[in-house]
Write a structure and sequence with these properties.
The chain is α/β, with parallel strands linked by helices. Helix content is about 45%, strand content about 15%. The protein has 30 helices and 21 strands.
């Protein structure tokens, strides 16, 4: 967990505009007509429609995407009863999480009222404003009374997150921990230390999932809740045990699961040692757990340990649940959040943990790899897949259980809508994958000793986009795969250096010699090169034994390019090759070139890059509108790079009038249509939105796209090779698994296009 000092925390909340959230208009407001539509007189029309049919509020107002985070400040985080206004920063923070993780708008409402009946009346009175209500930081037992009353009297989703959020996330972790330890929830003995709202809800949900009431022991500050006690309220009585035990030490002897929702330091290593084999210990006290991570892990080797902290594995964090639960509930206009929806969320979260983890998630937590196991029983909060996994599961459960007022017929469209909520539209990526799945091709992964290549091959096969072929020593590859839990079933491995490949090496060498003997290639030279992965793999593509090749994660791109030139060669009419990146930004899709190959392109090289990029952009279904960028505009600098670019543009205009391009121009003029058209109305780009940027050098293009990536302003697909006769795609060194899979899908499309040309 990141260390935070007082000064930093106060500065964060105070600087700039105070607080953490704001209201932003969603409709135009720049003209008098806009204002007349927004307010008087135009606003009367939706008012009258809603008067006739209250459900129309979901169509004409923000109600359907608006949640109230409501508290009276009686149980704030680890601070206790600090009052309504003192709890406001927490409620704003909750609103921020709703927005950034699920695109849900929030009003935080702090109610200065401790009387539960009066509090209930206040919330009921303002409820028509909202599509859902998240109750927050309200002490027990009043929180039970409040939630029960509101759920009974209101027809919108209500959830006390302190109760149910913790229950849902811990239940998902428990399911996975039990699977790893080969235990059944029906059989395990569970000890719950703490008897507040969260503990009560956790125990109840575990029972719904199959746990036996008689196998649960719950403790409060006075000890074990047993039937001999006479001081139990109605919330504790159902969990009273028949056993005569009185202490936590006694309860833990032979137990399988410990769930702590209490205070720091109540659990010891000696207590854990008395538990059953493979003990599952969830120490969730805030801010410090019932036992420290170091002490727990040293207690025994077979422990599975989780806390609420981000600085240790297995963080039980409510943010894994509430944004997506409300998202799913809102999207079907659910009247409540019922048990079926909670269980659906549990199962969805648990299942996501078992899927291959994107590199971007690992990178966010500075981890080399994450895979399902004792230190990964629950997804990481920054895993963006939670939105598209949990929300649909909750929505489906609402529909099937009869509490949805709206159904979803097209789940693929719903998935796309959820992805768009995160700011960027991945239509192009979906197009690439869907196209590749139609006719998957045989793709060689030449650097199969690299873990990312192996993971990408596995993922590509699962995605159905290709039939991977790995080049390398099968024993070494199998060892790497086993160490990293990579499943290579169904993936072909070719050991190019093995004796059984001798005939193929000879055949390839003969073919390469015949192709290159005028460039000094002898059979002996060619034969030796067939022991190199890239030469052998590219010859497979050249000879029609494979459709495409992916390489470059540790090869020097300059060397690899030379191999590609020798074996594959340039497309007809071209003397150069290039590379393009697709940038997916909040402002749309952009194509950048050349981003990998040509360090200081000549006049002729730039012309070829323009032509290559034009056809490549068309390949992805876009009409290229191209700008050649520099540090000046339209001949303002008569010498150097700007002048060279200006000359290229003029020649392209004369030789290829069908290509929509202009320049040289500064990037801001290229991307700001209004600014460009006003200043330079003569431009060939007038009235058009530029979607393709051609850079004057590799330094500028590489810096531009990597700057956008590192600042979180874009996702990328690439590098995409342009100009070779056949699909050979050379990656950036140490490309991520997702990058490799994306380029693999592009390579398949490339192969499909080559196939069509021959028909």
């Amino acid at each position: 967990m990141a260390k935070v000092n007082k000064e930093d925390a106060l500065r964060y909340h105070a600087e700039g505009k105070p607080g953490k959230i704001e209201v932003v208009p969603t409709k135009p407001y720049s003209s008098q007509r806009d204002l007349s539509l927004a307010y008087s007189p135009g606003v009367a029309e939706p008012c009258l429609e809603i008067e006739k049919d209250a459900s129309k509020a979901y169509d004409y107002t923000a109600k359907g995407n608006l949640v109230a985070v409501i508290s009276n400040g009686t149980a704030v985080l680890g601070l206790g009863d600090i009052g309504a206004i003192a709890g406001k920063p927490v409620m704003e923070g909750k609103g921020l999480l709703f927005k950034i993780f699920a695109g849900i708008d929030v009003f935080d409402i702090e109610v200065n009222e401790k009387d539960p009946k009066k509090f209930i009346e206040v919330v009921k009175a303002i409820a028509p404003t909202f599509g859902g209500i998240n109750l927050e930081d309200i002490k027990a037992p009043e929180c039970f009374e409040i939630e029960d009353a509101l759920k009974r009297d209101l027809d919108i989703p209500i959830m006390h997150d302190d109760q149910h959020g913790t229950a849902i996330i811990s239940a998902a972790g428990l399911i996975n921990a039990l699977e790893l330890t080969n235990k059944n929830i029906e059989d395990v003995k569970i000890v719950v230390n703490g008897a507040g709202a969260a503990a009560n809800s956790c125990a109840s949900l575990y029972i719904q999932l199959g746990a036996k009431l008689e196998n649960i022991v719950m403790l409060d500050s006075k000890g074990v809740i047993n039937k001999q006690r006479t001081d139990l309220n109605d919330r504790k009585k159902p969990f009273a045990t028949d056993r005569t035990i009185k202490t936590l030490t006694e309860a833990l002897a032979g137990a399988d699961v410990f769930l702590g929702l209490s205070v720091e330091g109540v659990l010891s290593a000696d207590m854990i040692r008395t538990m059953n084999q493979n003990p599952i210990v969830f120490a969730l006290a805030n801010p410090n757990p019932e036992i420290s991570y170091e002490e727990a892990m040293s207690s025994r080797e077979d422990i599975i340990f989780a806390t609420g902290r981000s600085d240790h594995p297995n963080q039980i964090n409510n943010v894994l649940g509430f944004p997506y639960i409300f998202r799913g509930a809102l999207d079907v206009r659910a009247t409540k959040i019922n048990d079926e929806m909670k269980v659906a969320a549990v199962k969805a979260i648990a299942e996501l943990t078992k899927r291959s983890v994107p590199d971007v998630v690992s990178a966010a937590y500075n981890l080399k790899k994450i895979s399902f196991g004792r230190e990964y029983i629950i997804p990481k909060p920054l895993d963006l897949r939670l939105l598209t996994i949990v929300a649909p599961a909750v929505a489906k459960a609402a529909i099937e259980s009869g509490v949805a007022r709206k159904t979803i017929d097209n789940w693929e469209a719903y998935d796309a809508k959820l992805k768009e909520l995160m700011g960027r539209d991945n239509k192009i990526l979906r197009y690439i994958y869907e196209t590749a799945r139609q006719q998957p091709k045989r793709v060689i992964f030449s650097e199969a000793n690299h873990i990312n290549m192996l993971k990408a091959a596995e993922a590509s096969l699962k995605e159905g986009i290709c039939f991977p072929v790995l080049l390398g020593n099968e024993e070494k590859i199998a060892r790497i795969a086993a160490e990293n839990h990579i499943n290579l079933e169904g993936i072909e491995i070719i050991n190019l250096r093995h004796d059984r490949e001798e005939n193929r090496r000879i055949e390839f060498a003969q073919q390469l010699t015949a192709k290159r003997y005028r460039q000094g290639m002898t059979f002996e030279d060619a034969y030796e090169k067939m022991y190199e992965r890239n030469y052998f793999g590219m010859m497979m593509v050249e000879m029609g034994q494979a459709d495409a090749l992916i390489t470059g994660v540790y090869s020097k791109y300059a060397d690899t390019i030379q191999v590609a030139k020798d074996v594959i060669g340039f497309r007809e009419g071209l003397n150069h090759i290039g590379a393009m990146h697709i940038l997916n930004t909040k402002k749309g899709i952009y194509f950048f070139a050349d981003t990998l190959i040509n360090r200081n392109p000549t006049h002729e090289t730039l012309k070829d890059i323009v032509k290559l990029t034009h056809s490549s952009v068309q390949l992805f279904g876009y009409d290229p509108v191209m700008a050649m960028v520099s540090y000046t505009n339209f001949g303002a600098e008569p010498t150097g790079s700007p002048a060279a670019i200006n000359k290229v543009v003029q020649e392209i205009h004369n030789e290829h009038p069908e290509i929509v391009i202009d320049g040289e121009m500064q990037v801001n003029f290229a991307l700001n249509t209004e600014l460009r058209d006003k200043k330079y109305p003569f431009s060939k780009l007038t009235g058009k939105k530029v979607n393709t940027l051609i850079f004057p050098s590799l330094s500028s293009s590489n810096s531009a796209y990597k700057l956008l990536l590192e600042m979180g302003m874009a996702d990328s697909i690439g590098p995409i090779q342009m100009g070779l006769k056949k699909p050979i795609h050379i990656l950036d060194i140490e490309s991520s698994v997702r990058d490799i899979v994306n380029v693999t899908a592009v390579a398949v499309i490339d192969a499909l296009m080559e196939e069509k040309k021959k028909q």
